Amino acid sequence: MTSDGNLDQISKELGEAVKRIEKIQAADRPPFAQRFTNHFRKHGNNLTSLVLAGCLFFVALGRLDLKSSHQTEKTSWQQQLTALEQEKQGLKAENNRLAQQLSSLQDGVRQEANTSARRFGPVAERLKALLEQDSPPALQSKQGNDLQNSQPEDKSQTMI
Which positions are tagged coiled coil (predicted)? Predict the structure, then answer.
């Protein structure tokens, strides 16, 4: 029994010693705010570097996104530019074709006016005068009216 009594006493003393050590540690331990500021003072350079690295990372991501959107927009504009250039080439080809048709029509009208001057008289002379003018809108409107009035009977002579 004596050994059980000694064990109880020793365990009791040990428990009291643990409580005293915890009180001492609690008394020496500063509050959370103070511990936090002490930790920040001690490791502040590391935290500042980490925050700067994070900022640089997000700035780089933003710039990469801008570059990507700019490249997409540039590609879109280039596609539109090529489409417009193709349309321009098509319009130039159509313009050349229409100019050739107009030239052949003028030649045909001149030829017809020369050959039928005897038959139609003043109308043929007016056609010649209109063809030699330099104003195309007047040529087109007046020539269209005169051609309707003086259509040759044989259409195989006109070139279209």
Answer: 67-108
